[in-house]
What does this fold into?
Amino acid sequence: MRKALLILIVFACAKGAAAQELLLPFTANPFLISEWKKKQESASVYKTAFAADTLQSLPFRDDFSTYTGYPDTALWADDHTYVNRDLSIAPVTLGAVTFDGVGRTGLPYDTVITSFGISDTCDWLTSRHINLDYPGDSTVYLSFFYQAMGRGDKPDQNDSIILEFWNAATQQWKKVWGRPGYSGTQTPDSIFRLVMLNVDTAYLKNGFRFRFHNLGTPCGNIDQWHIDYVYLDRNRSAADTIFRDVGFVYSPTSLLKNYFAMPFNQYNPSELNDTLTNFIRNNDTTINNTFYTYKILNGLQTTVFTYPGSSGNINPFEVSGYTTCTIPTTGCYDIYRTPLNTSAFQGVLTGNTTYSIVHSINPTTDNNVGNDTVKRVTHFYNYYAYDDGTAESGYGLNVYGGQIAYKFTLNYTDTIRAVDLCFNWIPDGVSIPPVNSVNDRQFRLFIWADNNGQPGSVIYYDSIVTPSYQYLYHTDWGMITNLFTRYRLTSPVVLSGTFYVGWVQLTNNILSLGLDRNSNANTTRLWYRTSSNWNPSVINGSVMLRPVFGLDSELAGTAEANEALNEYALYPNPAADAVFVNAGTQGGEMGIFNSMGSEVGNYRLSEGVNEVNVAGLAPGIYFVRISCGHAVSVQKLVLSR
It folds into this structure.
C-alpha cells in the first residue's frame, strides 16, 4: 500500500535496485477497459440493484473456468472484480477471480494518486439473492479457495481479503472470515488454500447473500488476492473437502516451439512443437481414467485435423502434484505431453492465418464439465511473438542510456519494417508529485548483429520516439490482449540469421514494457545493458516486443506511433550552418542529438520562426526534438557542407 504512489509515477517499488532491470506491477487492466467501453455502448443499462435476483435453488457453484472478464451475471450482482486465466498460480481448475486496486472501468480507483499511504476498500464480489429457507439445517456449507499474490503483486500487511454474510432478517452484513496481507519480509506461499464455512442458522432465509471484498491500495493492479472454486450447498460437512472434478488448469502451449506467432514466410516444419503440453488437475482422492483428444481449426474455424485420442490415469493432485507423462501410458499424472502429428498438420498450413488447437478431456467421473475444454490460438502473419498476448507485469530499466536487445533468428533472408511494442499504462501529467510528461520518456529503436550468442555491432538505429500507452481487446486470442503500437522503421533493413532488436532509452524514467509472465523467453533471449557490458535477463517472462517483416503493404492493422508534428517545420534539410524552426504560437525548446543519443545542442525557441546556428556541429545525421507545450516533434536533420 505505501508503494502505490511510486508504482504509478516513478516505479520506485519495482523489484530491483538502481541501474538494472526492474519488474513492475501492471497499472491498469486493458481487458476491462475494453469491456467497460462495450458495456457503455450497449443498449442495456448497467444494473446496481439486487431486486428480484433470487437464485431459487442450490447448489451455487462457480470455478471461473468458462469465461473471462466480468463475473457471471447469473451468479454475481456486481462487476468490480476480474475473472482471468493468467494471474493465479496452479488454480483448482482453469481460471480464478482477482481482487486488486483496479475498478470495473479497467483503470485504478484512484487515478490522481491521492491514496498514498492508505489501505482502502477496493473490489467487491457479491452473490445474487439465494434461497436458504431451510430452518435449523446444520448442513449448509460455503467453501472456496484463496491465494495471495500469484503472478501479480503481494498484498501488504495492512491489506486483507474479507468475506461477509447478509442477514436477511436484520438487513445487515457481518464479517465471517478474513486474511491479512504480508509484511515486507514475508512472501506468500502461492498455494490455493481451502476454506470451509458452516452457514449459521441465523442466515438460513430466502434472500441470503455473501460477498468478498479486499482492502488494498486503490492505485493500480496491485495487492492482489485470487478466489477460486466457490461452492455453496446443503448436505455438506466440514469434511466435505473432496471435489470430484478433473479439469484443465492453464492455457495450453503453442503449436510452435519458440513462438506464439511468427511470419508465415519464415515458417518451416522444424518450428512446430514436438509435443503439446497441458496441465490437468484431479481434485478427487482417487485415480481417474481420463480420455484426451485435440483438434486443429483453421482461420475459418474449420476442423483440419483431429487427434484420435487416448486414455490415461490421472492421479490425485494432492498425491502427485504435476508430473510428466506421455499419453497413452499407465500411471499418467497431471501433465499431458501429447505428440503433435506434424506431418498431418503440414498438409493444412497454407498461408497467413490463425490456427486454433482445441484440447478436450472426458474423465470417467466428473461433476463439472465446464473446465474440460481449452483452446490456444497460434498466428502465422508477419511478426514474431514470444509473448502470449497478455501482460501480467511491466519490465524496464531506470537509467539514461539503458539498452534492451531481444534475440530472433530468421530461417530465410527477410526485411524488417517495423517493431510492435506494448507498454504498461503510465498516467500523464500527474502533478502530485510533479512528474515529467509521457512525452519526455524517449527511446530509439536499435538492431544489433549477433556476437557469439549476445548482441554485437549495431546494424541500424532509428529516430527518437516516445511510448504509446493504449489498449484494445483482440478477439483472435480469446483472452486479454494489450494493444501493440507499431513503430515503423524510417528505412527497412534486410536481415538474415540471428539478430537482436530493442532500444536505447533517452530518459531515466522507466518505459515499462508489457511482460507476459506465463511464458519465458527473457532468460534465454533477452539482454540488457546499463553500463559497458551486456547481461542476460534474470527476470522470468517474455517482454512484449515483436519485430514485423514482409512487404510494406502488409503493415496495416496495428495502431501506429504519431509521426513528427508538421506544424513545427524544420528547414532547410539538409542544412549547412543554420536551420529555421517554426515554434507555433507557444514557443518551446529544441534539442539536437547525435547518432548515439547524446545531446549536442539545446536551444530556447520563441514564438514563430526561429533561426538556430548549427555551424559548430560536424557534418552528419542528427535527430532534432522540438517541444512546444505538451506537443513533441522528433525529426531527422542532415548537416552537409
Observations:
- Residues 416 and 493 are 5 Å apart (CA to CA).
